[in-house]
Write a structure and sequence with these properties.
Rossmann fold, six-stranded mixed β-sheet, single chain, globular, two-stranded antiparallel ribbon, alpha/beta, 192 residues
């Protein structure tokens, strides 16, 4: 059992930002520093699964001191990729003009993107939302207490991997059809 715990903890500590860095988007006109992937939730010896995130670093020259904004599309259970692609992300997905030889879809720079002033972290929560995965045998989140425990594990591991965000100003926002706004128990951020 102890060996299993050491392996689980070692897995998180072995991750680095380069494991999540996206490349190749420049062929679509994207030059923002972006990271994406599944961040494991490791707590209480229990692997609940992994939460999908998409991080877009700030465009401004103050990126190293800009705040971290966590964006959550609500429900809960609505993919935050909706906000990334259709609302405030660095690029918008648009239909290309195929008669002019353009690709079917093209990325267009969003001049009003929130990453003009902050580092934006899009998080798909709870588990089983969007690309987020639950561990085999893990049950769906049934209440806000379980959701906040999963988000706490995610945030702890995120700032362990992306150390530059430790101690940064943190803002949580998003959309949701029902209160609270956004749909996330803020207790997960209390000890951030």
């Amino acid at each position: 059992m102890l060996l299993c715990i050491i392996i689980i903890i070692g897995t998180v500590l072995a991750l680095s930002p380069s494991d999540y860095q996206l490349s190749g988007l420049e062929t679509y006109g994207s030059f923002d520093d972006q990271y994406s992937g599944l961040m494991p939730i490791k707590m209480d010896d229990n692997d609940r699964g992994s939460i999908f995130f998409y991080l877009v670093k700030a465009r401004n020259p103050l990126a190293s001191t800009a705040p971290l904004v966590i964006w959550l599309n609500g429900g809960p259970g609505c993919s935050s990729s909706v906000g990334l692609i259709n609302e405030n992300g660095p690029y918008k997905l648009s239909a290309g003009d195929q008669l002019k030889g353009e690709k079917k879809y093209v990325l267009e720079k969003n001049d009003n993107s929130w990453n003009n002033v902050a580092n934006i972290l899009y998080v798909e929560q709870p588990l089983l939302t969007g690309f987020s995965l639950a561990a085999k045998g893990s049950k769906k989140v049934k209440d806000e207490y379980e959701l906040s425990k999963d988000m706490y594990g995610f945030i702890q591991n995120f700032v362990t991997v992306f150390e530059e965000y430790q101690g940064r100003d943190l803002y949580v926002t998003g959309t949701t059809p029902t209160p609270p706004f956004p749909s996330l128990p803020f207790s997960a951020f209390y000890s951030y």
